[in-house]
Amino acid sequence: MSCNPFSPQLLDQALLYLICSAVGAFVLAPILTKILYKYKVTRRADYDFTLQGERAQKVGTPIMGGLLVIIVVTVITLLFNWERTYTYVPIGAMGISALLGAADDLMNIFGRHRRRRRSIAQTWTLVKVHHNIFWRIYYFLSLPWAAFRELTGMLGSHPGKGIQVHEKLILQFLAGAVVAWWIYFKLGSHWQTINLPFDGEIMLGWWIIPIIIFLVMFTANAVNIADGLDGLAGGSLLITFFGLTAVSWTDGRAAFTLLNATVVGALIAYTYFNIKPARFQMGDVGSLGLGTLLAVNAIAINKTLLIPLFGFIFYIEAISVIIQVISRRFFGKRFFKMAPLHHHFEFRGWNEEKIVMRFWLVHLFFVIIGVWLSLH
Amino acid sequence: MLSPKAEKLINDYFNLPFKGLSNIRCPYFNNARRRGRGQLRALIGKGTPTEIVEEAKILSIQYHYDFFDFDGRCKLCGESKDANEITAQVRKFLIDNDLGIDCSGFAAHVLRAYFRETRNIDIFSRAFSWPVGTWIRRIIAKLRPAENLSVRVLANNKFSELISDGRKPFDYAQLKPGDILTMLETGPQNKRNHILIVEGIDAGKISYIHARAWSVEGQYGHGVSHGEIEILTPERSLLDQTWEELGKLNDTNETYLEAKNAKVFEVRRIKL
Questions:
Q1: Which ipTM value was assigned to this complex?
Q2: Interface check B46 vs A, CB under 8 A
Q3: Which tens digit of pLDDT belongs to each residue from A90-124?
Q4: pLDDT above 90: residue A214
Q5: Residue of chain A minimizing CA distance to B43
Q6: Nearest residue on chain A to B51, judged by CA atoms?
Q7: Alpha helix (H) ranges present in B119-253?
Q8: Residues A310/A240, Cβ–Cβ less than 8 Å
Q9: In sequence order, what DSSP letters do the residues of A338-359 get, joined into one string?
Q10: B37 CB near a chain A CB, below 8 Å?
């Protein structure tokens, strides 16, 4: 569904969606909070170094608050903005990622400690010493898998009770593949191009598939990484989706304008309850789901190249983790006092509010640049 | 004495630069047993004093030990505890968390500071040409020089020149600050290597510094240390002189015993 760029009717409709979504989320929020408290879906102190001193009060705060946004957006889109061509895949991809996040959140709270991963060295030893030849062959064949687990394990922090990094990456790859399939096979060749600001478009052909998969995976994880301080991910996502709404509207992409406006509405309510002291926190269910939706929507409105601007703070946070891992593994030194970046500033003595508000402002600035570039 | 910056670094190892705390001597930590791979160098016995202090702060906050706050100030200081008790607690915390320095890590940082200041040469910048083995190991050495400058490398003829076999007499007057005393294949099972750095020569006394763990000091007593070799009989070898460290002389001095038991005990000078 498309209409004229800058259409007043579309703007009117988008604002209505935004208002309805915000009202719906405000109504749902207390009910969700009660349910999360009732089932003790709350934050624990294990492995969470940030729960110190003044922040110790966060222990017991419900997590999985991101469900608020996921539920409201899904319901409103299903009821009023459901289009097989445009909205079902973004909602579907968001759903897959949100389910993955929910499983991770719940396993982290209620699960048992996972068994330690067998390292490459241990697998190799078993290849050499196991008395059964078939097991030896099995261990030999499983060496690449052990290498993959060990390599991806370096990216994770603490092997806790939740879904492990390699499992998460595989499931995210599937979500990315669904989106790539949709864009490449279902939306037609027009969608295999990338818009270059000031310079028209470049045709990518099948290259669009790995690019989409990578962007979906990276963005989902980036939002997940940034969800570490009260209000940070929620407020930043609000700014991002506001920018995406504006761009969809200026391009006359009705379905995405309404979808993004719905997300903005729900995020207003979410962020209201999430700013310090948070009534609930997003959890992986929200951060992975909304991260995926961010990437899918930006790709679908042909702003693929501008994703790093629309998701600026998320990308910076994710890149800070990558730099830290490289510096630690290759040079044996910390590049940041701690990664992701918001923890670095905490160690520098900045308080939570200062970090969050400055990050919001920096993010807003880059989203504005993204919107401006989208117009060209 | 070594150069001012090297002495400052040594002083930092003897008094780790914690905010509001003094006299925290850097403990000894050797990664040979723990076998941490691809780790932060502060966690494998190769860190600088600043890195060790920073890591202590981060670990304390991360794992809720409650020793330091986000500004790095010690929380124990406000609890009206005895200074010695605080020192002991902080050192125990460091040792329990594998924070410390081993002999070659200590030597690497001190010698680097010394030659950078006196000769304007960074020994780490030449890591690719160190005798560490294959070219892959040389690349790793280039990336992580402090971790790869082992006693074996320091005692290799490509890296340092032999002044004398430690078991033979030589002209002690030719020793200079920055020279090293290397001991290969020593310890109870002859599997360990050790290194001392000559800090100064004055009035017939060679003062040395090193990082070590003596068995008599138990689990929490070890760390960087000063010692002296008093040259009473110049016509005889180093092992026939009087070694003093922590008030212990010769056969009660475990550094002396390590030198005595070493398969190879040499006095060497870094080639620049």
A1: 0.86
A2: yes
A3: 898 899 899 999 998 898 888 777 666 778 888 88
A4: yes
A5: A332
A6: A333
A7: 135-143, 145-148, 151-154
A8: yes
A9: SSSHHHHHHHTT--HHHHHHHH
A10: no
pLDDT tens across B99-150, in order?
999 999 999 999 999 999 999 999 999 888 898 888 999 999 999 999 999 9
Residues with Cβ within 8 Å of A8's Cβ and at least 6 positions away in sequence, in order, are: none
Q: Looking at chain B, which residue has its C-alpha nearest residue A338?
A: B58
Is A154 near chain B, with CB under 8 Å? yes
CB contact under 8 A, A334 and B41: no
**pLDDT tens, residue by residue, B220-268:** 999 999 999 999 998 999 999 999 998 888 888 999 999 999 999 999 9
3-state secondary structure of B207: strand
Ordered DSSP codes for B19-55: BT----PPPB--HHHH---S--GGGTTB--HHHHHHH
Domain that holds residue B44: 4-96
- Establish if A346 touches chain B: CB-CB under 8 angstroms: yes
User: Is A17:A81 a contact under the CB 8 Å cutoff?
Assistant: yes
Total tally of structural domains belonging to chain B: 1
Nearest Cα of chain A lies from the Cα of B96 at a distance, in angstroms, of 18
Give residue-wise pLDDT tens across range A141-184: 999 888 888 887 776 655 567 778 888 888 889 888 888 888 88
What pLDDT shows up at residue A43? 79
Give yes or no for a contact between A196 and A224, defined as CB atoms under 8 angstroms apart: no
The two three-digit tokens of residue B255, written as one number: 């550094």
In-domain check, residue B46 = yes
Q: How far apart are CA A304 and CA A212, in angstroms?
A: 9
Residue A333 with chain B: CB contacts under 8 Å: 40-41, 51
**CA-wise closest residue to A204 among A217, A190, A218, A186:** A190
In a domain, B54, yes or no: yes
Give the phi and the psi of residue A73 in degrees, each rounded to 5.
Answer: -65, -45
When scoring A334, A337, A343, A345 by the number of chain B Cβ atoms within 10 A, the one with the most, hence best to mutate, is A334
Q: Does residue B39 lie within any of the structural domains?
A: yes
For residue B271, give how far its alpha carbon lies from the nearest alpha carbon of chain A (Å): 25
Residues of B in contact with A328 (CB under 8 A): 38-40
Residues in chain B, overall count: 272
> What phi and psi, each to the nearest 5 degrees, are found at residue A11?
-60, -45
A52 touches chain B (CB under 8 A): yes
Nearest-CA residue of chain A relative to B143? A331
**Residue B252 within a domain:** no
pLDDT digits 0-9 by tens, B39-57: 899 999 999 999 999 999 9
A331 interaction partners in chain B (CB closer than 8 Å): 143-144
Q: How far is A215 from chain B (nearest CA, A)?
A: 28
Q: Compare CB distances from B61 to A52, A154, A329 and report the shortest one's residue.
A: A52
- Worst-scoring range by mean pLDDT, A278-292, B73-87, B175-189? B73-87
